[in-house]
C-alpha cells in the first residue's frame, strides 16, 4: 500500500476496534454489485444508516472508487472496498446482512425474464460465496428475475447444506413503494400514510396489489382498480422506457432496498412488529415461494402472514400470478439441478 492507504487502513482498524470495545450497536453489511446504478446510491444510503457499523462494497468494477468516495461521509459506518472474484470471500466473511443488486438491468422491450441467462450465473457464484463465508447472514436478493433468482439461491444453499428459508428474502419493496405512491395520488393522501400489501412475485402479472386491503380503509371504482393494478405492475417498465436504454429503476430501487434492509436490521436487533412484504419460501399457496407480508425478527422472516380476504378481481389476479410464478420458480430450480 502507498502511505496514505496504510494510514487509512490503520485508522479504519482503530475505529473498528474502538467500536467493538464500546459495544456500540451495529451490523456488518455487504453490498454485492455496489458500483452499479442501484449499488452506488444504495451504498450511500447504507453508509447513512445508524444500524450499520461496517459496510463492505464488492463489485467486479470500480469498487475502490465508490468506496473511496463514500468513505469520506462523516457517518459511523466503516467502509471497505473489494474488487473482483479473488476478494469475494474477504468481502463476505463475518457479514450479518448481504444485499445483492449485481447483474444486468433491462433495456426497452426486455422482460425481467430476458435477464435470466446472465444474472442466474452471477447469483449462483455470489451465493456460493455466502454459503462458504457467512452462511448465517440474511440475504436480500434484488437481481432480476427475482421470481427465479430466489429459487436459484435456495438451491445453491441447499447444495451447500446451509439453507435456512427464513434468511433468504427476495426484495419486492419497490412494488410496495410504487403502490403506496400511486394509490396515495388517487386518494389525494400523503404516501407516507398509505399501506398497500403487494403479494405474489416481482414481474408483470405476478405483482398483485391487494387494493381491497389498503390502509387507511378506502374503496376504488372498477376503473380505478384496473388503472392502479396496471400501473403498479408496469411501474418498472415506465422507468425503463423513460430511461430509453440507460437502464431501469435505480434511485427509487436504492430507496426501497434501504427501506427493506433497515427493516431486516431492526428485526435482527430484536425490535417488535417489523412487517414488510418479501418473496420468500412460503406455504401460503401451493407454490414453494410467494411474496406476502412477513414479520422480521432475529432469525429473518419469522412469521409469514396469510393473504387475508380477497375480492373477485384479486382472486382472478392470484390465479394468473400463480401460473406465471410456477414457471419462473421451476426455471430457477432446474438451472442449478440440471
Ligand atoms: P447496473 O448494470 O447499473 O449495475 C450492476 C452492477 O453489478 C455493475 O456494477 C456490475 O459491475 C455488477 N456486477 C456484474 N457482475 C457481477 C458479479 N459477478 N459480481 C458482482 N458484481 C457484478 O444494474 P442496476 O440498474 O444496478 O440493476 C442491478 C439488478 O437489479 C438488475 O438485475 C436489475 O434488473 C435488478 N433490479 C431489481 C429490482 C427489484 O425490484 N428487485 C428493481 C430494479 C432493478
UniProtKB/TrEMBL annotation:
<feature type="binding site">
    <location>
        <position position="59"/>
    </location>
    <ligand>
        <name>NAD(+)</name>
    </ligand>
</feature>
<protein>
    <recommendedName>
        <fullName>Malate dehydrogenase</fullName>
        <ecNumber>1.1.1.37</ecNumber>
    </recommendedName>
</protein>
<dbReference type="GO" id="GO:0009507">
    <property type="term" value="C:chloroplast"/>
</dbReference>
<comment type="similarity">
    <text>Belongs to the LDH/MDH superfamily. MDH type 1 family.</text>
</comment>
<feature type="binding site">
    <location>
        <position position="144"/>
    </location>
    <ligand>
        <name>substrate</name>
    </ligand>
</feature>
<feature type="binding site">
    <location>
        <position position="253"/>
    </location>
    <ligand>
        <name>NAD(+)</name>
    </ligand>
</feature>
<feature type="active site" description="Proton acceptor">
    <location>
        <position position="202"/>
    </location>
</feature>
<comment type="subunit">
    <text>Homodimer.</text>
</comment>
<dbReference type="Pfam" id="PF00056">
    <property type="entry name" value="Ldh_1_N"/>
</dbReference>
<feature type="binding site">
    <location>
        <position position="178"/>
    </location>
    <ligand>
        <name>substrate</name>
    </ligand>
</feature>
<dbReference type="InterPro" id="IPR015955">
    <property type="entry name" value="Lactate_DH/Glyco_Ohase_4_C"/>
</dbReference>
<dbReference type="GO" id="GO:0006099">
    <property type="term" value="P:tricarboxylic acid cycle"/>
</dbReference>
<dbReference type="GO" id="GO:0030060">
    <property type="term" value="F:L-malate dehydrogenase (NAD+) activity"/>
</dbReference>
<feature type="binding site">
    <location>
        <begin position="33"/>
        <end position="39"/>
    </location>
    <ligand>
        <name>NAD(+)</name>
    </ligand>
</feature>
<feature type="domain" description="Lactate/malate dehydrogenase C-terminal">
    <location>
        <begin position="172"/>
        <end position="335"/>
    </location>
</feature>
<dbReference type="InterPro" id="IPR036291">
    <property type="entry name" value="NAD(P)-bd_dom_sf"/>
</dbReference>
<keyword id="KW-0560">Oxidoreductase</keyword>
<feature type="domain" description="Lactate/malate dehydrogenase N-terminal">
    <location>
        <begin position="28"/>
        <end position="170"/>
    </location>
</feature>
<feature type="binding site">
    <location>
        <position position="112"/>
    </location>
    <ligand>
        <name>substrate</name>
    </ligand>
</feature>
<dbReference type="InterPro" id="IPR001252">
    <property type="entry name" value="Malate_DH_AS"/>
</dbReference>
<feature type="binding site">
    <location>
        <position position="119"/>
    </location>
    <ligand>
        <name>NAD(+)</name>
    </ligand>
</feature>
<dbReference type="GO" id="GO:0006108">
    <property type="term" value="P:malate metabolic process"/>
</dbReference>
<keyword id="KW-0520">NAD</keyword>
<feature type="binding site">
    <location>
        <begin position="142"/>
        <end position="144"/>
    </location>
    <ligand>
        <name>NAD(+)</name>
    </ligand>
</feature>
<feature type="binding site">
    <location>
        <position position="106"/>
    </location>
    <ligand>
        <name>substrate</name>
    </ligand>
</feature>
<dbReference type="InterPro" id="IPR001236">
    <property type="entry name" value="Lactate/malate_DH_N"/>
</dbReference>
<dbReference type="Pfam" id="PF02866">
    <property type="entry name" value="Ldh_1_C"/>
</dbReference>
<keyword id="KW-0816">Tricarboxylic acid cycle</keyword>
<dbReference type="InterPro" id="IPR001557">
    <property type="entry name" value="L-lactate/malate_DH"/>
</dbReference>
<dbReference type="InterPro" id="IPR022383">
    <property type="entry name" value="Lactate/malate_DH_C"/>
</dbReference>
<dbReference type="InterPro" id="IPR010097">
    <property type="entry name" value="Malate_DH_type1"/>
</dbReference>
Amino acid at each position: 500500500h502507498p502511505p496514505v492507504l496504510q494510514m487509512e487502513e490503520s485508522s479504519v482498524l482503530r475505529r473498528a476496534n474502538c467500536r467493538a470495545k464500546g459495544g456500540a450497536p451495529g451490523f456488518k453489511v455487504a453490498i454485492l454489485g455496489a458500483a452499479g446504478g442501484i449499488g452506488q446510491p444504495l451504498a450511500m444510503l447504507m453508509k447513512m444508516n445508524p444500524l450499520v457499523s461496517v459496510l463492505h462494497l464488492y463489485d467486479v468494477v470500480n469498487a475502490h472508487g465508490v468506496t473511496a468516495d463514500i468513505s469520506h461521509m462523516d457517518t459511523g459506518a466503516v467502509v471497505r472496498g473489494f474488487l473482483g472474484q479473488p476478494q469475494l470471500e474477504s468481502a463476505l466473511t463475518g457479514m450479518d446482512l448481504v444485499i445483492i443488486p449485481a447483474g444486468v438491468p433491462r433495456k426497452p422491450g426486455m422482460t425481467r425474464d430476458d435477464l435470466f441467462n446472465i444474472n442466474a450465473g452471477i447469483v449462483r457464484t455470489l451465493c456460493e460465496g455466502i454459503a462458504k463465508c457467512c452462511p448465517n447472514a440474511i440475504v436480500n436478493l434484488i437481481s432480476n428475475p427475482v421470481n427465479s433468482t430466489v429459487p436459484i439461491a435456495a438451491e445453491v444453499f441447499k447444495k451447500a447444506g446451509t439453507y435456512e428459508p427464513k434468511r433468504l428474502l427476495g426484495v419486492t419493496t419497490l412494488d410496495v413503494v410504487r403502490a403506496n405512491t400511486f394509490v396515495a395520488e388517487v386518494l389525494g393522501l400523503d404516501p407516507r400514510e398509505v399501506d398497500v400489501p403487494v403479494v405474489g412475485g416481482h414481474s408483470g402479472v405476478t405483482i398483485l396489489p391487494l387494493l381491497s386491503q389498503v390502509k387507511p380503509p378506502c374503496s376504488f371504482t372498477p376503473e380505478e382498480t384496473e388503472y392502479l393494478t396496471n400501473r403498479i405492475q408496469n411501474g418498472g417498465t415506465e422507468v425503463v422506457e423513460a430511461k430509453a436504454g440507460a437502464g431501469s429503476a435505480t434511485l427509487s430501487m436504492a430507496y426501497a432496498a434501504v427501506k427493506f434492509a433497515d427493516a431486516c436490521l431492526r428485526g435482527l436487533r430484536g425490535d417488535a412488529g417489523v412487517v414488510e412484504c418479501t418473496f420468500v419460501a412460503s406455504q401460503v399457496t401451493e407454490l414453494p415461494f410467494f411474496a406476502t407480508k412477513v414479520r422480521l425478527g432475529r432469525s429473518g422472516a419469522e412469521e409469514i402472514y396469510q393473504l387475508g380476504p380477497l375480492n373477485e378481481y384479486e382472486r382472478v389476479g392470484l390465479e394468473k400470478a400463480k401460473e406465471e410464478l410456477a414457471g419462473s420458480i421451476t426455471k430457477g430450480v432446474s438451472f442449478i439441478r440440471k
